[in-house]
Amino acid sequence: MTAGPTSLQPSLLADGPALHEVEFVVVDLETTGGSPHADRMTEIGAVRVRGGEVVGELGTLVNPGRAIPPGITVLTGITDAMVVAAPPEEEVVPTFLEFARGAVIVAHNARFDVGFLRAACDRMGLTWPDPVVVDTVALARRVVSKDEAPNHKLGSLARLFRADVVPDHRALTDARATVDVLHGLLGRLASLGVTHLADLRTAADPVPDAVRRKSTLADALPSAPGVYQFLDASGRILYVGTATNLRTRVRSYFTAAEKRRRMAEMVRIADRVHPIVTATALEASVRELRLIAQHTPPYNARSRSPAREPWIRLTDEAFPRPSIVRTAPLDARGVLGPFRSRALATAALEAATGAFGLRTCTDRLPARPRPGASACVLAELGRCAAPCVGAGEPPDYAERVAAYEAFCAGDATQVLELVSARLRRLTAEQRYEEAALERDRCHALLRGAARAQRLASAAAPELLAARPAPTAPGAWEVVCVRHGRLAGSAVAPGVGDVLGTAHALRLVAEDVPAPDRWAGAALAEETEIVSRWLDQPGVRMLDVTGTGPALPRLGAERALVDLAAVLGVTVESDVLGAPPHQAPEQAPDGEPEDAPGAA
User: Fold this and answer.
1) pLDDT digits (tens, 9 = 90+) for 405-447
2) pTM, full prediction
3) What value, to the nearest 5°, has the Cα angle with vertex 262 and ends 256 and 266?
């Protein structure tokens, strides 16, 4: 995407150098008119400055290839005779681009000057480099009041900041005056916390001074991955977040880049920021999740009550039925979930009982029907086998239970076929509300099954894995996972160090006891985060105790994708992450030469 004249180059923002380290090129143009496409430039002036010192200047008239309007001559004093021997824009613009290479472009009313430069590049087939652009008009509107200057024109600001030169509508003179105006504006902005290039991106935006001044809370933070905690004066944790660059991420909270109203409220209360540097981004994500669950910060909206998420499991009786429960023992049958809410669990329960014809009554039924027992209306509708009256013989009901358990274990074929057929029939009959209800129930059921299957896939007693570090060429991230819980992570400097790092990590990693319930060793969301990390391209399994991570080929994640195709929609990103693991039908063809072997 091409950035506009006042946009910022992402790579420079990520570095976020201090303003005294940044090189600025202040530019001014004189032109034959106001249209960058219909008119042409007649003069260009540019001054390169760093740390308040001028390091270079560029100034030249430009032959516009057309007559200069009399009104422009009166304004600038530039005549046709003056530009007849001047170089054309085809020579001047490449020279300017070289002069300004790697610098931040500054102009007074930057849209005008940058617009002409971009248009000239387009005419010549040159690529505009999309540098950081700063508009001194926009900055002046932020910090110069009407009591100080009648307007924000260059002449008014030059007088206010006692510029060494007086603007006279000649390019180099106006550029020199703009340099002094820029320095004056930056001096004022510094008191508001605008001290780095990243701050300058939103310096002209209406950020309250009380918020912008808090940017000093980020000054001592490291430029490393990890977790950050906003705390108030009493030490209470207000908010927990994760970042690949702690310093850059936290600084963004004090600029207009942060649009969330509650975050502005939180920043006003915050007294300090506590960083926790982590070896890997995966460890940062897991630590963030654990801290939110432990402290329930008031300004975190997600993952605050993960332990209260409901499950579905089969009851332990002669004619079992799916039931919503608070926890699921490790030996429980027909487990789904956990679900994000009780409402989703209820919808999934309705979908499961309807798809497999399982009973919904809550009475504990004996193996033989009670004398005088009567069936409910669901039996009359054909939606229940009615084992309470013996209408469904035990073998028949057992087959229904077995089909449900097969679905939970990883075969969603029957459910997908049944729901797809029902949705097509309801849609053909224009029963759209019923079709929407059926769709939502099926989604809830498949989501619950997908989460349970993913949790089961990462439940090995111990797993060591590695992948190339995305931010450190040549390095490898190494993780140790025990019973679905991240026990430790480290970074190996090179591929030859991976196995040694894995061995050392195994010795110091957290000791995780075997759980006695589903997702008992870790929060379900943590195990999912770890599982999706294992799904990433380039991950290599170093050693696995027990069954390695593998999702069923016909499982719920695959069914969600297929159902989305039936509906003609895209499956939600919070349901599926990376493509699911699949049990291989044959051994892989081979590993890259630099992939570490088994530990």
Assistant:
1) 999 999 998 888 888 888 888 888 899 999 899 999 999 999 9
2) 0.66
3) 85
Token duo for residue 303: 């993952």
Average pLDDT of span 49-71: 95
Question: How many CA atoms within 13 Å lie on the side-chain side of 402?
Answer: 6
Mark out the alpha helices in 102-253 (DSSP H runs): 110-124, 136-143, 154-160, 171-190, 197-200, 209-212, 246-251
Residue 419 backbone class (left: φ over 0; alpha: ψ -120 to 50; beta: rest): alpha
Whole-angstrom distance, CA of residue 575 vs CA of residue 451: 8
Q: Is residue 169 annotated as a catalytic residue, yes or no?
A: yes
Residue whose C-alpha is closest to residue 215's, from 240, 245, 251, 249: 251
What DSSP string describes 279-338? SSHHHHHHHHHHHHHHH--TT--SSSSGGG--EEEE-SSSS--EEEES--BTT-SS-B--
* 164 in Cβ contact with 183 (< 8 Å): no
Q: Which of 20, 169, 503, 581 is catalytic?
A: 169
Please tell me the least confidently modeled range out of 38-42, 146-150, 161-165, 307-311: 307-311
- Residue 261, classified by CB atoms within 10 Å of its CB into exposed (0-12), middle (13-18) or buried (19+), is exposed
Sheet bearing 272-277, strands edge to edge: 237-243, 226-231, 272-277
The pLDDT tens digits for 160-216 are 999 999 999 999 999 999 999 999 999 998 887 788 887 787 777 667 777 877 888
